[in-house]
Design goal:
This protein is an all-alpha fold and 143 residues long. It has 5 helices and no strands. It has one domain. Helices cover 72% and strands 0% of the residues.
């Protein structure tokens, strides 16, 4: 009789024929959590400047400085979201680092209280040598 509480056996389980597959799956799960947090945080935060930018464009006589500041906030939020997506899907190590680093900047970061911890968490995960190697392997097409 099968025990439902046993660890999985097979492709990604401990008895996997290829231990590298199990390691890559663990790294993918480890990277996806902070990447998803950055993606969600950046996506939500990009809505607020976008709404205000549309309002600014519809109302004439708004100072250019306000427009530029809002555009910078919007662009930063988009970079954080894209970096989080690239991190979660292990597509671009450099873009993931940019998104994580931007999330650490207090006044630029979305939701100041949450941006710094998630950005630091993402940077810590990205600095792991195994994670760097997994990104490089994926770039070379071996994953």
């Amino acid at each position: 009789m099968d025990n439902p509480f046993e660890p999985p056996v097979g492709e990604y389980g401990p008895d996997s024929a290829d231990p590298d597959i199990a390691d890559r799956e663990r790294i993918r799960r480890r990277v996806s959590r902070p990447g998803t947090a950055l993606l969600i945080m950046g996506s939500i935060y990009s809505v607020f400047p976008a709404i205000y930018l549309v309002r600014v464009l519809l109302v004439h006589g708004v100072p250019v400085e306000d427009f530029l500041v809002l555009a910078a906030f919007f662009f930063t939020a988009i970079l954080i979201a894209v970096g989080g997506a690239k991190m979660a899907f292990m597509e671009s190590y450099s873009m993931a680092r940019i998104g994580a680093a931007l999330a650490c900047i207090p006044l630029v970061s979305p939701f100041v209280v949450w941006g710094m911890p998630f950005g630091i968490w993402a940077l810590i995960v990205l600095n792991d040598p195994k994670v760097k190697a997994a990104f490089e392997d994926k770039d070379q097409g071996s994953v």
